Predict the 3D structure of the following.
Amino acid sequence: MIALFVSVDSPMVLKILIPIAIAVGVSVICLLVWKLLYMGLTRWTKRARVKFLDSALQMINRTLFFWCFIAGVYVGIKTSLLPENWTDTADNVMAGLLIVSVALLIASFAGAVIAFYTSKAKLAASRADLLQNFVRGTILLLGVFVLLGTFDVDITSLIAALGIGSLAVALALQETLSNFFSGIYILLGKNIRNGDYVKVNSDVEGYVVNIGWRATTIRPFQNTLVIVPNSKLSQSIVTNFSLPEPWIQIIMPINVSYDTDVDKLERILLEEGKRAIKEVDGILPEFEPVVRFLPGFGDFSLNFVFVVRVKQFVDQYIVQHELRKRILKRFRAEGIEIPFPIRTIQMSNPKKVTKGEDSGAKGYTGESGRAVS
């Protein structure tokens, strides 16, 4: 081996070894600088306690090793005595490798962003993977176009062909694409989530089981499944009973007779409400029951409202059931009357008409009067 180097001209050896040494040195320096920067960024992300930033830093770390290698090779080639056509080719190769690595990094980063937000939106894993693959594929396709342009490949005709093909596909799949993008809008809007209880246009009501790319599945209380196309859902008036908070307020009308002591009534309702908080599941204990003399004076009764809060929408049914039973028992025990609808007819100057007095009359008729309700 020593004889081989002795036989080679020393200047030639230097011309070969110096660019290699420069390439190695640049790569090592680049790696050391990045290592120091990476350690500082790692400590910062740990203090920030954001897992997404840590994942992004890991992806950049893996790519930076390759970038440092490319930088070293590029500088080594530029300092060498290779022919100009060789260096030009090497420049194109280095640029192509850099474009590929950047496209892969952006695609991975975009996939991580989508995974982070779809996990928060509780999207099914299969649909999250489909969205990630779609975005990654789009980014990589753009990277391929940039790469072809770097090597002086005419991509105008290719883009034109793809544009015409995309237009034809879009026209053929217009409804499907409308549902697809409406599904993305629903997911990103975060106004409807899996597990929420919603009402759509006062027609469909139930739990959101799944938000797919074509339709959203809702399960009503009857334990059936209602499939609503995403385009229809995005254009509908939707009431979400799970947002902004899962609890809801229920207002129960209470009607009693005019002979009722209103202070006593209020005391009884509040006592039953506080007792139910401890004994009935579903009532929100942080909220005290409220009694209000609303809407007030009715035709035949005094009208009150009894207000409580329940933990979630479906709890209102069992809560109202239990409260009504307790209130009815207490009213009967306290002698509070729940009146029936009453209409009083007040007659003025009644006159009895004998049968047959008028050839056209049958039975009895009365004079004019007024009705008081």
